[in-house]
Amino acid sequence: MEIIHVSAECYPVAKAGGLGDVVGALPKYQCKAGHIAKVVMPMYRTKFLYENEWTVDFKGHANLGNWFFDFTIIKEKNNKLGFDLFLVDINGLLDRQKIYGYDDDAERFTAFQIAILNWMNNWEHQPDIVHCHDHHTGLLPFMMKYCYDFGRLQQVPTVFTIHNGQYQGWMGWDKSRYIPRWDLWKRGMLDWADTINPLASAVKCASKITTVSWSYLDELRYNANGLEKLFDYERGKCMGILNGIDNEVWDPATDKYLEHHFTVKTVAAGKQKNKELLCERFGLDKDKPLFVFIGRLVGEKAADVLPEAIMSAIGNSQGQACFLVLGSGETQVEWQFQQMIDPYRGLFNAVIGYDEALSHLMYAGADFLLMPSRVEPCGLNQMYAMRYGTVPVVRSTGGLKDTVVDMGDKDGFGIRFNNATSGDIEYSIGRGIAVYKDKAQLEKMWKQMMQIDHSWESVVDAYIAVYESLR
Ligand code: ADP
Ligand code: GLC
Q1: 106-148 residue pLDDT tens
Q2: Is-above-0.85 flag for pTM?
Q3: What's the rounded mean pLDDT across residues 45-63?
Q4: Residue 213 Cα, ligand 2 centroid: separation in angstroms?
Q5: CA atoms of 407 and 182, how far apart (whole Å)
Q6: Average pLDDT score, the chain
Q7: 261 lies in a domain?
């Protein structure tokens, strides 16, 4: 089958979070399973672009409202990622260093999608599936069905995967002029609450919707940033498929970012060596349990409650545990963490920013990973942590609920709590401190979690079955 993945992120080309990891891995494993999976994404000005070789695949032009633009689609020459990778270049819109966060994101991603459809419309054949990821690609199913210019693509089935339903790409109706000539009777397929809502439009127009865990799909019917009724209504065409992880990238035995490798047999010594490196670098006590947080410092991740939770855990346990935070996001939260570094020196440190290499060392060297997320569609951090023998401490929500079994339950290996409050987090940290002293229990938990199979190999078939059902 020929599957075209369209996404704003793809690791290692450009990644802001888990979406990048998924789109960098799923196509690779689909190719390994004998399919032809390809990825199309914007040509940002990232390191990967300059360090690799490219050929020009297509040159075209299109309109975004009254603005006429040229675009070029280039293809990576050497199949470096294990699948064909295409980048869409639009000068003035996509030639930026960052992925998101610009005032003209609506224009950038709409033009990106229009360019892709112009390109595919010119092919001699049609792909078997167009697989879109998140709202930046949410107008594709609508445009394929209802724009007169793309009639050749009308019958191509589309799958839309929701990695994050909180962001929906809202734009005012004045921007409807950007969409190439379309059937005006179909206005309702773009609209939600009087705005153009690309995520809602994709839910209405795509042939099939998937979310990245089973529990998240359930939750969307009650908590979907305004789209609850839509998810309830469309539940018949929605299904949950839990993400996998790329075991070639995330393997403590071979991880290219680690100096000290380990396996399930050598986990105790291996983790200790990585922990020593971390503790030395960040001035922490290597003999105390180390709790880390890695991620975007935003409300969804409940990063705002962490400063208080960490401070009271340090206070009430009389400094029995150490903490290290890596992330960036809301200015207020970044500032709070920075303010904590001095008063809690020796027990707490924080790195504000994005650091791929450090994140790997943290998964390897930490004892516990904190994820108090208010919303977590899947969560990859906890799966990486599990593979590296780091006990996940998570709120019972979405994918966290589907992947972490509390240590109090049969075959459990993690710590789960119900509320994203300082009290629940502090209590769970206390459970962590207690189990850290019980080496026999900890070893049992390592064995349990490190051997769980979350490989993409085990997930690929579920996606293929979805595609097959649409042919
Ligand atoms: P989300 O996509 O919602 O941010 P996920 O758990 O799915 O959450 O994936 C997050 C990914 O981004 C993981 O690979 C994690 O290691 C990585 N990550 C998040 N923040 C940082 C950071 N500051 N530095 C390095 N890696 C990060
Ligand atoms: C999103 C979600 C996260 C998920 C990731 C990959 O960013 O917030 O939970 O793991 O996408 O699907």
Answers
A1: 999 999 999 999 999 999 999 999 999 999 999 999 999 999 9
A2: yes
A3: 97
A4: 10
A5: 55
A6: 97
A7: no
Both 34 and 51 in one domain: the answer is: yes
At a CB cut-off of 8 Å and minimum separation 6, what does 88 contact?
Answer: 40, 41, 42, 43, 71, 72, 73, 94, 112, 115, 116, 119
Instruction: List ligand 1's pocket residues with C-beta within 6 A.
Output: 17-19, 21, 294-296, 326-328, 354-356, 359, 378-381
- Domain assignment present for 85: yes
Q: Which residue do the tokens 């419309």 mark?
A: 121
| Nearest CA among 47, 5, 48, 46 for reference residue 25 | 5
One domain for residues 157 and 82 = yes
User: What distance in angstroms lies between residue 195's CA and the mean position of ligand 2's atoms?
Assistant: 25
The strand pairing partners of 73, in sequence order, are 58, 88
High-pLDDT (> 90) share of the chain, %: 100
Contacts of 222 (CB under 8 A, 6+ apart): 228
**C-beta 379 within 6 A of ligand 2:** yes
Whether the CB-CB separation of 159 and 470 falls below 8 Å is answered with yes
Residue 378 lies in a domain: yes
- Position 185 scores a pLDDT of 97
Residue in 7, 9, 10, 19 to alter for ligand 2 test, most ligand atoms within 8 A of Cβ: 19
Q: Decide if 260 is inside a domain.
A: no
Rg (CA), the chain: 23
Task: Note whether 286 and 275 are within 8 A (CB).
Answer: yes
Pair 130, 144: CB distance under 8 Å: yes
- Distances in whole angstroms, Cα of residue 46 to Cα of each of 14, 15, 329, 352: 7, 10, 20, 20
CA neighbor of 313 nearest in space, from 334, 333, 293? 293
What token pair was written down for 304?
A: 């705002």
183-223: pLDDT as tens digits: 999 999 999 999 999 999 999 999 999 999 999 999 999 99
Percent of the chain with pLDDT over 70: 100
Instruction: Give tens-digit pLDDT for 252-309.
Output: 999 999 999 999 999 999 999 999 999 999 999 999 999 999 999 999 999 999 999 9
b/e burial code for range 26-45 (CB count within 10 A of at least 16 → b): bbbbbbeeebebbbbbbbbe
Query: How many helices and strands (H and E) does the chain possess?
Result: 16, 17
d(CA 285, CA 320): 10
Is the CB of residue 300 less than 8 Å from the CB of residue 375? Answer: yes
- Say whether both 461 and 345 belong to one domain: no
Q: Which domain holds residue 307?
A: 267-450
Which structure tokens are listed for 105? 């994101």
The upper half-sphere exposure of residue 427, i.e. CA atoms within 13 Å in the direction of its Cβ, equals 10
